[in-house]
């Protein structure tokens, strides 16, 4: 997803995160459970929250089973929030009011299985 579709989806995810997820399920920020106030600048967090949001819609929306919300909390909310808020998770190093961008691991060769020949610049 990219362009206007990505922007619109990210906006809807942001509204859900700021008006549903964090007010209800956001716990206090500590050094052992960090959160970044600029979470959208962490690609891993965006990917995990997007999956959490999609599961929320599926398990709590019209036609879902009455146990859907409980299943969502058990199967999706707790694992995602534990991963995001882990001291070694995507927000490690971020502090309240202090975003720290992450540097992805170095990769020596982008496509090591590309046939021999000229490589794109």
TrEMBL record:
Superkingdom per UniProt: Bacteria
Sequence segments annotated as region (Disordered): 88-121
Name of the featured protein: DUF4913 domain-containing protein
Species of provenance: Streptomyces haneummycinicus
């Amino acid at each position: 997803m990219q362009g206007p579709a990505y922007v619109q989806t990210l906006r809807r995810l942001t509204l859900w995160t700021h008006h549903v997820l964090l007010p209800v399920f956001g716990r206090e920020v500590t050094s052992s459970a960090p959160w970044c106030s600029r979470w959208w600048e962490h690609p891993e967090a965006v990917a995990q929250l997007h999956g959490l949001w999609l599961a929320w819609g599926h398990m709590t929306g019209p036609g879902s089973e009455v146990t859907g919300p409980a299943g969502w909390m058990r199967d999706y909310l707790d694992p995602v929030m534990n991963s995001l808020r882990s001291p070694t998770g995507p927000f490690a190093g971020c502090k309240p009011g202090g975003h720290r961008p992450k540097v992805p691991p170095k990769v020596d060769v982008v496509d090591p299985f590309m046939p021999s020949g000229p490589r794109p610049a």
